[in-house]
Amino acid sequence: MRAILAALALWLSAGAASAQGVRLVIPFAAGGPADQLARLVAPGMAQALGQPVVVDNRGGAGGVLASEIVAKSAPDGQTLLVGSLGVVVLGASLQPKLPYDPARDFEPVALFGRVPSLLVVQPALAETLGGLAAAQRKLGRPLTYGSAGPGTTMHIAGEMVRLATGLPMTHVPYRGAGPAVADFLAGNIDLMIADTPVLLPQVTAGKMRALGVFGSARTPLLPDVATAPEQGQPSLVMENWYGVLAPTGVPAERRAALEAAILQAMAAPEVAARLAAAGLQAGTGAAGFRAQLDRDQAQWPALLKQLDIRLD
């Protein structure tokens, strides 16, 4: 951390900072997790860099639009992508004919953190993951699960459950997580899997029953809910992440300065508290983020092929 802060100081003292604002390009509409995280960190980042930091929402095409903007931008550290597991890794595996190469055209700067998915069911359906089999037999039909659309983490997690349990399940896609939650609350689907913070209010209100955390460890948001691996399903781990990436070719000093500015902003007490409240864990710098990307890029393409998930 001292070395990173030293790089930041060197970059600033050399006068490399310009009046031009740093642009955080968000591959989603305003109001979602990536947008909220960017707006949370931007003020502290701007203060550390001595530059304005603006948030630019460029939703569309499953994150391809925003990613292409950043991938093809000048490698000066002025245009950055706030990416996620779904956009940077999963989307690339499901859309092979992209106008950029996610593994080649981006370099990690800093990771805001990881958040596990949560499996919820209608409150009367089952009380444990193991109870889903009896619930399905009682219903006499496939279990229905909702998602934010084909190829999303919600869809992939549902197919992971189908593969791990062998239960007949039917995918019901929606145009976003919000409509899926609304239809669940209307009683029209049996279960869903989404980022824990998205479902937490309804779980707390008793409108959803949480059966398992799809993470390597329990979430402090729901400490009494066991992980899927604890319940005998070691393959059911879906931890979404959010982080900042730069186009390949940004000078090392500039990347280090950006990394230091983001980490400094994340360490501010109010920001750190809000990140924790959002369920984000294991935020880290470029080296830790690179390790996360390497693991994901090694794991997910083969699993997606096994699940036979396609976007066509």
Automatic annotation (TrEMBL):
Residues 1-19 form the signal peptide. Keywords: Signal. InterPro entries: BUG (IPR005064), Bug_dom1 (IPR042100). Pfam families: TctC. The keyword Signal applies. It comes from the Bacteria. PANTHER family: BLR1237 PROTEIN (PTHR42928:SF5), TRICARBOXYLATE-BINDING PROTEIN (PTHR42928). Belongs to the UPF0065 (bug) family. This is Tripartite tricarboxylate transporter substrate binding protein. It comes from Dankookia rubra.
